[in-house]
Design brief:
Number of helices: 4
Protein name: Transposase IS110-like N-terminal domain-containing protein
Shape: globular
Order of helices and strands: EEHEHEHH
Structural class: alpha+beta
Number of strands: 4
InterPro entries: Transp_IS110-like_N (IPR002525), Transpos_IS110 (IPR047650)
Helix content: 25-40%
Strand content: 15-25%
GO molecular function: DNA binding; transposase activity
Radius of gyration: 13 Å
Length: 104
């Protein structure tokens, strides 16, 4: 989910697109993000599921922000991946995501 527009607006432009989890799908996601001039990517650092995304995106100039799921899951009513993505984008836009530690 991409939220674009001034931070002082309650209704930023929303763009959503689904991608798979294969290497090719993640490379396509990276290309789509670049085409849309995205600068920051917020994602849940759940188990090992975030590692392929991180490995592929880390060679780009994107700012990667892994979010601790315990810090962002405490909101009732979010049931789908698309809603989760929009919620992460909203929190990230407002600077409310504390990045998880990534060991080197």
């Amino acid at each position: 989910c991409i939220l674009d527009g001034p931070l002082d607006t309650n209704k930023p432009k929303k763009i959503q697109k689904k991608f798979g989890t294969t290497t090719v799908a993640l490379q396509n996601a990276l290309a789509w993000l670049k085409e849309n001039h995205v600068t920051h990517v917020f994602f849940e650092s759940t188990g090992q599921y975030w590692l392929p995304l991180f490995n592929i995106f880390s060679d780009s100039d994107l700012v990667l922000v892994p979010a601790n799921p315990q810090h962002i899951k405490n909101v009732p009513g979010r049931k789908t991946a698309m809603k989760d993505a929009e919620w992460l984008a909203q929190l990230g836009r407002c600077g409310l995501i504390e990045p998880s530690y990534i060991p080197s």
